[in-house]
């Protein structure tokens, strides 16, 4: 059958659409794509880190997977920044407006088209993520005076900074919340943290404190704070433990009471200890303290995740079902929160979320790359059961 002119045009349009779609995915499928119209409206609503690129650019193609990983980390509802991209072969005027003369050009915008920082550092995930966190930490120029804490908070929760941190924690027990004002989890924890401070207001041996990591950036960097909130217990200036339990008032209060008894024995009878967190049914929470011990014996399937990661949130109920389905089998279904267990995640070179890894007797066997359905995951696990000897 002969092709008509109209059919030829349709085929060309389809080819171009598929080509552009592939090019878009190749440069970060999880990054938000903007054109001139959408860029102008979005840039004033939220902070943005934007890659201006050309599909034919080799440097852009090589950066694409890393840019996608960066988008997976930050592109979620609670994040204060959006990882985005602009195809300069399609939006030449927009790229010209922003003086883009080479590819890729990376710019961080502070809610204004003319308030930006051009990125010129290394293009690995760690360097890019550190740059984003530094830019996010910069206060917005609103012209308003910073809010003054109310008197009740001044009396109870101790605000520590770069200047007084070391001196303040040199003696006694200090339970410290490292936070960022924009963090949703931090905002929800704030009233509970105040209540915790009130509970120990009369106890001179313990102090409930907080550190704003958008202000005391040097301090938080030195303490290896990677996620918010991070809750750390110090004793006489030394880090004792990073808290991993529930965030209710009773959970936190019991934890402090237990640690006080362990450290000094002077708190009196400790309240009932907080049970070890098991997370979802059949899913074991792994920490820097127990990770090596747990994976050293038998088969362990581990989900490395971040609470703000959208893909992780979508996988969570399926992972719970997987844990329940394998509760009686010779496999441990586990998870690691990489915002809390940085040592473990860094040691395993985790660069994106979620990362799903199988360990056998302490050896990393394989990274799962298949479909994230219960059926796909179960079939994968069953493939290891029955022949798990190395």
TrEMBL record:
Residues 1-23 form the signal peptide. One of its GO terms (biological process) is protein folding. GO terms for molecular function: protein disulfide isomerase activity. GO terms for cellular component: endoplasmic reticulum. InterPro entries: PDI, PDI_thioredoxin-like_dom, Thioredoxin-like_sf, Thioredoxin_CS, Thioredoxin_domain. Residues 20-133, 134-261, 262-386 form the Thioredoxin domain. PROSITE patterns: THIOREDOXIN_1 (PS00194), THIOREDOXIN_2 (PS51352). Keywords: Redox-active center, Repeat, Signal. SUPFAM superfamilies: Thioredoxin-like. Belongs to the protein disulfide isomerase family. This is Thioredoxin domain-containing protein. It comes from Littorina saxatilis.
């Amino acid at each position: 059958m002969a092709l008509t002119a109209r059919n030829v045009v349709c085929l060309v349009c389809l080819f171009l659409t598929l080509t552009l779609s592939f090019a878009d995915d190749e440069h970060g499928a999880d990054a938000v794509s903007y054109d001139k119209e959408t860029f102008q409206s979005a840039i004033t609503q939220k902070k943005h880190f934007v890659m201006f690129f050309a599909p034919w650019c080799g440097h852009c193609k090589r950066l694409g997977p890393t840019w996608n990983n960066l988008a997976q980390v930050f592109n979620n509802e609670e994040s204060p920044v959006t990882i985005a991209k602009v195809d300069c072969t399609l939006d030449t005027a927009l790229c010209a407006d922003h003086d883009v003369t080479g590819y890729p050009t990376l710019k961080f915008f502070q809610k204004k088209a003319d308030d930006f920082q051009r990125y010129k550092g290394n293009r690995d995930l760690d360097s890019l993520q550190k740059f984003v966190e530094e830019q996010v930490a910069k206060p917005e120029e609103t012209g308003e005076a910073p809010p003054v804490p109310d008197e009740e908070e001044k009396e109870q929760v101790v605000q520590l900074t770069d200047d007084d941190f070391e001196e303040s924690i040199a003696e006694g027990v200090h339970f410290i919340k490292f936070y960022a004002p924009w963090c949703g989890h931090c905002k929800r924890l704030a009233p509970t943290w105040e209540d915790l401070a009130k509970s120990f207001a009369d106890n001179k041996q313990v102090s409930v404190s907080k550190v704003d990591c958008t202000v005391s950036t040097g301090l938080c960097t030195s303490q290896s704070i990677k996620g918010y909130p991070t809750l750390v217990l110090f004793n006489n200036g030394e880090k004792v433990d990073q808290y991993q339990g529930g965030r209710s008032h009773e959970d936190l209060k019991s934890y402090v009471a237990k640690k006080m008894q362990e450290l000094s024995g002077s708190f009196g009878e400790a309240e009932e200890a907080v049970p070890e967190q098991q997370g979802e049914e059949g899913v074991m929470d792994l920490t820097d303290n127990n990770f090596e011990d747990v994976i050293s014996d038998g088969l362990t399937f581990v989900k490395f995740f971040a609470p703000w990661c959208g893909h992780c949130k979508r996988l969570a109920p399926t992972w719970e079902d997987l844990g329940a389905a394998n509760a009686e089998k010779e496999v441990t279904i586990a998870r690691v929160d990489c915002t809390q267990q940085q040592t473990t995640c860094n040691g395993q070179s985790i660069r994106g979320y979620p990362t799903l890894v199988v360990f056998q007797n302490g050896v990393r066997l394989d990274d799962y790359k298949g479909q994230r359905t219960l059926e796909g995951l179960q079939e994968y696990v069953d493939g290891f059961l029955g022949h798990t000897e190395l």
